[in-house]
Specification:
The chain has six helices and eight strands. With 283 residues, the protein is of the alpha/beta class. α4 packs antiparallel against α5. Bound molecules: zinc ion (ZN). The site of zinc ion has 5 residues, from β5.
């Protein structure tokens, strides 16, 4: 009998130990593994432009699906708004302290921009000039977008381009901006604009809108709210306006920072900024 009891005791102890072990394991799996510091995460990601030591990198590893695709927008809404270190062509009048239009900056060409952005196919070098404040805002914003959405980039269209294509774009304050990963439609000759989200799953549409909204927030923050964007997507417009007001931002360009416009503005932002927008600091 004693031997039997002893065997049962041993079995009970073994069972108990097993249960404790299993419980410990289960609890451990509930506690998230410590995250690597952001700057180390950034270093291992080798995508987009390099970040600075302040560690504002926002691409958490859990934003990527198993295939490496981005499946969630960045959580953090902290934007550095720094002008990337590029050679920016500028008129000699800028040196002499003269105002626009004598002083203008030119958005650097694609082969001189470190892969930060592409230039819209119809935008010529003459159409890349504008006020220094606007050029610096575009550069700081495309840098921010490329860091927040690794592997993607903004396409920059016309800045100053007075003529048949535009009624505006003649005061150094207008620019057209495109997001190839979020604005599916194209302005093909002879074809009416189709639905920007045609044929996409609801999840894909959500992510497209998240990109558009994130880029609008970058532009708003980096300009201090001093902008107006035309974009023809009611949901994006309403969400952006609510965020803008909640952030306490106020636009001195227009009563509303984002507005609906014609169908051409389904696939790009037309942005107008304040004339006296200050040049942003460099990285
Ligand atoms: Zn435009």
């Amino acid at each position: 009998m004693r031997a039997g009891v002893s065997a049962r005791s041993v079995a009970a102890v073994v069972l108990l130990a097993g249960a404790v072990l299993a419980l410990t394991y289960a609890l451990a799996s509930l506690v998230p593994a410590p995250r690597a510091p952001r700057h180390e995460v950034a270093a291992s990601h080798d995508a987009g432009p390099s970040h600075d030591a302040a560690g504002f990198w926002t691409t958490e590893p859990d934003r990527l699906g198993p295939d490496g695709a981005i499946v969630a927008p960045p959580e953090r809404e902290e934007f550095a708004c720094l002008v990337p270190r590029l050679e920016i062509p500028r008129e000699a009048a800028c040196e002499r302290g003269e105002p626009y239009p004598a002083c203008r900056w030119q958005l650097p060409a694609e082969d001189a921009n470190d892969g930060l952005y592409t230039i819209w196919r119809n935008t010529t070098p003459e159409h890349r000039w504008a006020r220094p404040g606007l050029v610096s805002l575009v550069l700081a914003s495309v840098r921010e977008y490329a860091m927040r959405w690794p592997g993607e980039h903004v396409t920059v269209g016309d800045l100053d381009a007075a003529g048949p294509r535009h009624q505006t774009h003649n005061r150094g304050v207008d620019v057209d901006l495109y997001l190839a990963h979020a604005m599916a439609d194209r302005n093909e000759p002879g074809r009416a604009p189709i639905d920007n989200y045609h044929g996409l799953s609801r999840r894909a549409v959500r992510l497209h809108r998240a990109r558009v909204l994130d880029f609008a927030k970058i532009l708003a923050r980096c300009s201090g709210g001093r902008l107006r964007i035309y974009y023809a997507d009611r949901e994006v417009v309403d969400t952006f306006r609510a965020w803008f007001a909640e952030e306490g931002l106020v636009s001195d360009v227009s009563s509303q920072p984002m507005q609906m416009h014609n169908d051409l503005h389904r696939f790009h932002f037309h942005m107008t900024t304040a004339e006296d927008l200050a040049v942003l600091p460099s990285e």
